[in-house]
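Tutorial, part two.
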Amino acid sequence: MIFGRSERGKPPVEPVTLKILVAGGFGVGKTTLVGAVSEIKPLRTEELLTEAGRPVDDTSGVEGKHTTTVAMDFGRITLREDLVLYLFGTPGQDRFWFLWDELATGALGAVVLADTRRLEDCFAAVDYFERRSIPFVVGVNCFDDAARYPTDDVRQALDLDPGVPVVLCDARDRESVKEVLISVVQHAMAHAADRRETVAT
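Running the prediction step on this input gives:
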């Protein structure tokens, strides 16, 4: 199957498109994740960090970071010929959170990317999706110089509900990121089925 065209006389498949958010703290790897898996050149809205932003952009633990997302990252990945994900990376700093509501509209689910060196930075994202009943998966981005912890320890530290998946990943690795995105879709589908069952009863 060539995307958008049929092969050997088969009727063209109209793919289902789903919107997934990628959220988390400043410098956690959201832009890297979207770029690693996107089959198109990702749209990025990165700007250089400046001296003026130093008081509000906490670069502790990510001192090598020189740019920041000021609106969103956007990418696309085809998981199957009939399933396409649109990825929207959210800005990490507090002052850009007014964009989150717009980005979250119509989202099937989300990835909350976490860095074990700055785990508290993803509390706000976890709270955001919990309050809006948007299903999410926590992806622990395993940085080379970060300590490794069992997923149960991360779950406890973030005080997550038992049903929220926690997965280890490498935001630079396409296959690793694909596994995270598959987890989001599966979790969101299970979440939707549970809600339908609750409404039916």
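The chain has a mean pLDDT of 84. In part three we will examine how such features are distributed along the chain.
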